[in-house]
Amino acid sequence: MIADRLLGLGFVLVGAVAAWSAWNLVVPFAADPLGPTPFPVTVALILMVCGGLLVINPTHRFEPIERKFAPPLMVVAMLAYALLMEPLGFMPATALLALAIALLFGARILFAAAVAVITAVTLWVLFDKILDLPLPKGILPL
Amino acid sequence: MMETLSALGGGFAVALTPFNIMLALVGCIVGTAIGVLPGIGPLNAIALLLPFCLALRLPPESALILLAAVYYGSGYGGRITAILLNMPGEPSAVLTTLDGHPLAKQGRGGAALAISGIGSFVGATLSVVAMTFMSVPLAKIAVAFSPADYVALIAFALSLLGAVGGVSAPKAWGAGCFGIMLALIGVDSGTGVERFTFGSLEMLGGIDFTVLAIGLFAIGEILLLVETTMRAEAAKIGGGQRLTAKELVFCLPAMMRATGIGFVIGVLPGAGASVASALSYTAEKRINEGNGKFGQGDMRGVAAPETADNAAQIGNLVPMLSLGIPGSGTTAVLLGALLMYNITPGPLLFEQKPEVAWGLIASMYVGNVLLLALNLPLVGVFARLLSVPASVLYPGVLALSFAGVYAASNSAFDLIMSVVFGVLGWLFRKMDIPLVPIVLGFVLGRMLEDNLRRALALSDGAVSALVESPVSIGLWVLTVGALLWPLFLAFRKGRA
Amino acid sequence: MQRRSVIAAATALPFSAPGLVSAQGFTPQNPECIAPAAPGGGFDITCRLTTRVLQETGISPVPIRTQNMPGGIGAVAINNINAQRRSDPNVIVAFSTGSWLNMAQGRFGRFGENDVRWIGAIGADYGVICVKRDSPFNNLQDLMNGFRQNVAGIPVGSSGAVGSQDWTKVALVARAAGQDPRRMRYVPFEGGGAAMAALLGGHIQVFPGDASEIRGQYEAREIKILAVLSPNRLPGVLADVPTAKEQGVNIEWPIVRGFYGPPQMPDAAYTWWVDAIRRLQAHPNWAEQRNAQGLFEFNMVGEEFSAFAKARTAEYRQLARDVGIVPAQ
Question: For the DUF1468 domain, which residue ranges apply (chain A) (predicted)?
Answer without folding.
Answer: 6-136
